[in-house]
Design brief:
Shape: elongated
Helix content: 10-25%
Strand order of the largest sheet: 1-2-3-4-5
Distance between the termini: 41 Å
Radius of gyration: 21 Å
Order of helices and strands: HEHEEEEEEH
Number of helices: 3
Structural class: alpha+beta
Length: about 180
């Protein structure tokens, strides 16, 4: 992400994401690499957590690596090649939405690897950038499903109000029966 003006990195990112969503090639299930080109007063892991939070809330995007200049360098990305300090590195962060039953809440991001600009530019751990994020076991997290809501695929048989005041529906139909077979 590049800073488009006087706005914060967070505002810039949110604006760019909205622009991308309008593109015909938009694919929320693709692999994303978000690069912060300037340092921020916010620690890198908090900026990465905010980026993941926005991506999850807007489009349930999971396959993301966030690359942020090391928080101790306090240098924009373009200056890292021209300046030698002990902190010439970029941190790569990732997030797992269904880890330990957290159920899609961005609480902690994981430092996946560090891109070090010393001698021969290299990754410190050479970790795979896009590990599997969707587990076989959701550990109690709810799964939201959608179907085509017309007869004979989905037929509402009953609706009622629950104790907490929310509406609930009993449905049947071809799509519902297919889901029951899988469950």
């Amino acid at each position: 992400m590049w800073n488009e003006g006087a706005g914060s990195l967070n505002e810039t990112f949110e604006n760019q994401l909205e622009n991308l969503k309008e593109n015909t090639s938009w694919n929320p299930r693709g692999r994303f690499l978000v690069v912060a080109t300037e340092s921020s007063n916010e620690p890198g892991h908090l900026l990465a957590a905010h980026i993941y939070s926005v991506l999850w809330q807007v489009a349930r995007i999971v396959n993301v690596v966030v690359l942020i200049p090391d928080q101790f360098a306090h240098l924009p990305l373009y200056a890292l090649n021209n300046t030698k300090t002990s902190a010439d590195r970029l941190n790569l962060y990732t997030w797992f939405p269904f880890k330990l039953g957290i159920c899609g809440e961005v609480q902690d991001v994981i430092l996946l690897d560090e891109w070090v600009f010393e001698n021969n530019v290299t990754f410190l751990h050479n970790t795979y950038m896009y590990p599997a994020k969707v587990p076989n076991n959701f550990k109690g997290c709810p799964i939201k499903l959608g179907t085509v809501g017309i007869d004979p695929y989905v037929i509402m048989t009953e609706n009622f109000t629950q104790n907490d005041g929310s509406s609930a529906y009993e449905v049947t139909g071809l799509s519902v029966e297919e889901l029951k077979l899988v469950y």
